[in-house]
Design brief:
- The complex is a heterodimer.
- By secondary structure, chain A is mostly helical.
- Chain A has a single domain, classed as Non-ribosomal Peptide Synthetase Peptidyl Carrier Protein, Chain A, CATH 1.10.1200.10.
- Chain A contains 5 helices and 2 strands, in the order ααααββα.
- In chain A, α2 crosses α3 and α2 crosses α5.
- The relative contact order of chain A is 0.20.
- By secondary structure, chain B is of the alpha/beta class.
- Chain B is built from 19 helices and 19 strands.
- In chain B, α9 packs across α10, α9 packs across α19 and α11 crosses α12.
- The two termini of chain B are 45 Å apart.
- Classes of the chains: A mainly alpha, B alpha/beta.
Chain lengths: 101, 534
């Protein structure tokens, strides 16, 4: 089904829904101060208290959800040769919108 | 199917277990071995947790299953990008899949590289996963909620306490040893409780679990546990730590006894370790040696401001990443792979060794590595140097190091920019040795037999035979018939069947996940917490 969805040119709204779903599911028992809701402006590191291992798991979850493992995630994680200190949900959505088409 | 159990004891070795059995710390294991078969189990060429466990549960060598280390890495542009191996990187079918597709039920608890969990018929709770991700990596998804209702369930105890383990691995204050050992006793109890619950409520044809505390204790506690290394006049603290370590083994023995009792007399129980253990007294700083020979150049940091320099220093302390790639032809990527990677030029005017000079380059490197000798004894520091083709033949060896080093004390190398190149440890530490353990008992298994060394890839065909299934023809391991009684073998001849199924190839990695140097440093911290790096 996911592959079919990709072939039909997935929309940003659909990607956002999936990403929010992944993050809500992932963080539902993390005892965070963040009380949500998770949306485009939500920051993975500052709001959801992501650490490096959480980023790895997040990317695995994305790959599993969209059945793709060849996306250049460094484009999401790096900027001007340096790794970013923060990623927003919107950053992830834009990245996936570019690479899932 | 005949009920079959695989109880994994990470790092277990007879040189530790035999004295513990003799002195009465592990009475159940002593009787269990007397009622069955024992053998040494030879691990993978680099006896390391991920490749070794995967070889055990696939019956294939690392060159075929494709897992060589904790860390998956790839050179891209001007840097190396890291992520962690996971289940999707295993290029061969596992016994859990083989059993599932033949309508059997499986249970897999605490095995490394079992996340994200495959959709087997049965239960998987993965190992090497942070508590924050245990729920989503448990199969079937509703199982975690059931486990949460067990009395005393605590995901933080079940998974890794990274802070505690990190502290323990860093040259610890004495009081932290105690907490660290107690943590592992608690942790094993958690896994045991889950196993007991699933044995009663979700019985499987193939039940498998890894208890990994032995490995964690032996890395720092070899000198407290092995009788030859424990001081003849120990301090009060040394006595206390040894007592705690023995408490761990006593508790483990009780778990084994209860598992076997619950399994019942019709079950076959196999106990195996992924690798053995032994003493390590020195560290070879391989990247410093490569630097001294002109193969590796550290990146120049003289133009950086103080803040940047400190950041780089922190990174270099954690890992090697700060290399000048244009002036590096060979380097060690991780401590745990114990290997050297040769950088082959990707084209004309590219840095690295021209492809047509690779063989000559590698021969020269091997020759120079062989010449590294102990100045006092003239003994070679590196006992064996294996090429990729020797150590890891197979279709999926592209991630394997070009050279695998077997040190004379089997120690892990250092990849830091430090001197001296060969460093004598102030205290003996435990390290992975190739000879692990294999023990079996149950219907049709020989009694009181000590047999010749088996290979780790023999375990999977043995489990399948025990279950009454065909052994796929493409497994590299053999059925060790000497484990079984001749009458049982006669009545139940080994059947070789169709090859294993191809794994889901959508998962073939073409890019990997880039991890920044800070991120990678944190992963290094995780490995440090696991006790595998300095």
């Amino acid at each position: 089904m996911e592959n079919e969805a990709c072939k039909k040119k997935i929309t940003k709204a659909e990607i956002l829904k999936d990403i929010v779903g992944i993050l809500e599911d992932m963080t539902s028992d993390w005892d965070m101060e963040f009380s949500g809701p998770i949306g485009p402006e939500t920051r993975l590191m500052s709001d959801l208290e992501f650490e490096s291992i959480d980023v790895v798991q997040f990317i695995v979850a994305i790959e599993e959800r969209f059945k793709r493992r060849n996306m250049p995630f460094e484009e999401l994680l790096m900027e001007d040769g340096r790794y970013v200190d923060e990623i927003t949900v919107e950053d992830a959505v834009n990245f996936l919108y570019t690479h899932l088409q | 199917m005949n009920p079959t159990y695989l109880i994994g004891l990470d790092g277990a070795v007879f040189s530790i277990l035999d004295p513990l059995m003799e002195e009465g710390t592990m009475p159940f294991l002593k009787d269990f071995i007397a009622s069955g078969v024992r053998a040494e189990l030879l691990s993978t060429p680099n006896p390391l947790t991920p490749p070794a466990w995967i070889s055990m549960i696939t019956g294939r060598s690392p060159g075929n299953h494709g897992v060589f280390d904790f860390i998956w890495a790839e050179e891209r542009k001007s840097d190396v990008y890291f992520t962690l191996y996971n289940y999707r990187d295993i290029q061969c079918e596992t016994v859990w899949s083989i059993v599932s597709r033949q309508n059997g039920k499986v249970c897999s608890l605490n095995f490394p590289m079992t996340s994200p969990p495959p959709a087997v018929s049965g239960c998987i709770v993965p190992g090497l996963v942070s508590w924050k991700h245990l729920r989503l990596n448990t199969h079937p998804p509703e199982l975690y909620e059931r486990l949460k209702k067990l009395p005393g369930f605590n995901a933080k105890d079940l998974a890794w306490d990274f802070e505690l383990e990190k502290n323990a691995a860093r040259g610890v204050p004495h009081e932290e040893y105690e907490n660290w050992i107690k943590f592992h006793i608690r942790r094993e109890r958690h896994w045991f409780e889950i196993l007991r619950y699933l044995m009663k409520n979700n019985p499987a044809d193939l039940t498998s679990i890894v208890f990994d505390g032995i490995d964690k204790l032996l890395h720092i506690g070899w000198r407290f546990i092995h009788p030859d290394y424990f001081p003849s006049a120990p301090s009060a603290w040394e006595k206390k730590i040894r007592t705690l370590c023995l408490d761990y083994f006593r508790e483990l023995d009780r778990f084994l006894a209860e598992i076997v009792k619950l399994a019942g007399p019709d079950s076959r129980i196999f106990i195996a370790s992924d690798h053995g253990f032994g003493p390590s007294w020195e560290v070879f700083r391989v990247n410093s040696w490569l630097n001294s020979r002109g193969y590796l150049t550290w990146k120049d940091t003289s133009n950086l401001d103080e803040a940047e320099k400190k950041k780089v220093e922190r990174l270099v302390e954690r890992h090697f990443v700060h290399l000048d790639w244009d002036r590096t032809t060979a380097y060690a990527r991780t401590v745990t792979s114990n290997g050297i990677y040769i950088r082959v030029a990707r084209g004309p005017n590219q840095s690295g060794v021209p492809s047509d000079q690779y063989e000559a380059f590698r021969r020269r490197l091997i020759s120079e590595l062989k010449d590294i000798r102990d100045p006092e004894t003239d003994e070679r520091i590196i006992k064996r140097i294996l090429t990729k083709e020797e150590a890891y033949p197979g279709a999926h060896n592209d991630q394997a190091p070009d050279l695998t080093l077997v040190m004379r004390d089997h120690g892990f190398v250092s990849i830091l920019n430090k001197n001296p190149i060969v460093y004598k440890r102030p205290e003996i530490a435990g390290t992975h040795y190739p000879e692990g353990i294999f023990v079996a008992s149950g219907p049709g298994i020989q009694r009181g037999a000590s047999i010749r060394q088996l290979s780790i890839v023999d375990v999977a065909p043995t489990l399948l035979y025990s279950l009454g299934l065909e052994i796929p023809e493409d497994l590299e391991g053999r059925l060790p018939e000497e484990v079984f009684e001749s009458t049982y073998l006669r009545d139940n001849p080994c059947r070789i069947g169709r090859p294993t199924m191809k794994v889901d190839t959508y998962a073939l990695r073409t890019g990997g996940t880039a991890i920044d140097t800070e991120e990678e440093g944190k992963i290094m911290d995780k490995l440090k917490a696991l006790g595998y790096i300095e």
